[in-house]
Amino acid sequence: MNKKYNLHLILDTESAHKKIIDSIQKDSVVLEVGTSHGHMTKYLKEELNCNVTGIEIDPEAAKDASQYTSEFFVIDIDDIELL
Question: Which residues, other chains included, contact 35 with Cβ-Cβ below 8 Å and sequence gap of 6+?
């Protein structure tokens, strides 16, 4: 996979990131689909003490994000046979 995306977490405006983060309570169990390199994943674990399971299509991005999860899957969720 050669997807090149690596957005940093934006929490100082009414961004999509902020809206998502604001809807998650501390100590939640979270399934994050499309973790990218794990900017939100890291925030969920370190700031909100969440138990995160991650899903990402890009193996390189998954390496970064997986360090902040309890479980991680590198899969293409559009591949119905794989699921």
Answer: 41, 54, 55, 56, 61, 62, 65, 69, 72
User: Strand order in 29-33's β-sheet?
Assistant: 29-33, 51-56, 71-74
pLDDT tens digits, residue range 31-58?
999 999 999 999 999 999 999 999 999 9
Q: What is the pTM of this model?
A: 0.85
C-alpha–C-alpha distance, residues 14 and 12, integer Å: 7
What is the rounded (10 degree) CA torsion for 6, 83, 21, 15?
50
